[in-house]
Amino acid sequence: MSKNIVEDAAPLSDTAVEAEIRRLTRRSFATGAVGALLGGGAATWIATRGLEDGIQWPLRRVLRFNESVSQAIFGPQRLAPEFAPQLATDLRVNGRVGLMSAAAADNWSVHVTGVADRHIPLSAIRELPMHEMTTEFKCVEGWSRIVSWKGVRLADFLQKFGTPSQYVGMSTPIDGQDAQGNADRYYVGFDRPSAIHPQTLLCFEMNGQPLTEGHGAPLRLVSTVKYGYKCIKRLSVIDLTNDRPADYWAKRGYDWYGGH
What we know:
By secondary structure, the chain is an alpha+beta fold. The chain is 29% helix and 23% strand. It contains six helices and twelve strands. The strands form three sheets. A five-stranded mixed beta sheet has the order 4-3-12-7-8. Strands 5, 6, 9, 10 and 11 form a five-stranded antiparallel beta sheet that branches. A hairpin with a 5-residue loop joins strand 5 (130-138) and strand 6 (144-153). The chain is globular, with a radius of gyration of 26 Å.
């Protein structure tokens, strides 16, 4: 019936069509203007709020809400897809904080601090069960690469060399000073469930080759449940703590949790 109504309606005159176009244009402009004003007002309001952990508090609280949602659906059984090794590609070097000095791989060790205090040589870490995975490495900037990794599970390391803690902080060696005179090092914080996820590895190799300096030789972290900025290179210190540890990019306005 509606089809017949359309067919039987008298065609609009050119004047009527032009009037309708003007009406729709005015309405669209008014709607867009209101939206822009509301959006601009919201942006101005957010920009004038006080800071909380480095960013305006409304933004920080949104990040914390996102974290609570991610934690609610998190579980060790939720594994990232794995791919055939031949699909692996080169990974770009993205950031060199903590990598400026050459690493002495021959006598490298990881210093476990906090509720434990001991140095674990790289040779002892290599004696843990080896695992390989070809997974998608995701950057918060929006790009991703399929990469093959070989190493040991952080969960196995913590079980053998650590003690129970709510959080795991990790950092590179202190690598001189930055422009402000602060110790130049990179550091991340993990909640315990993310640290012991089966796809969170301490890696020695990438795409079948030993890690290069730019990719964190001789030891780096890779986790499929986190964005790349949480996957610390040149791992030197593991801090076992019940206090939420500092995080390099969280102090600069990013999400502390860093999950995806």
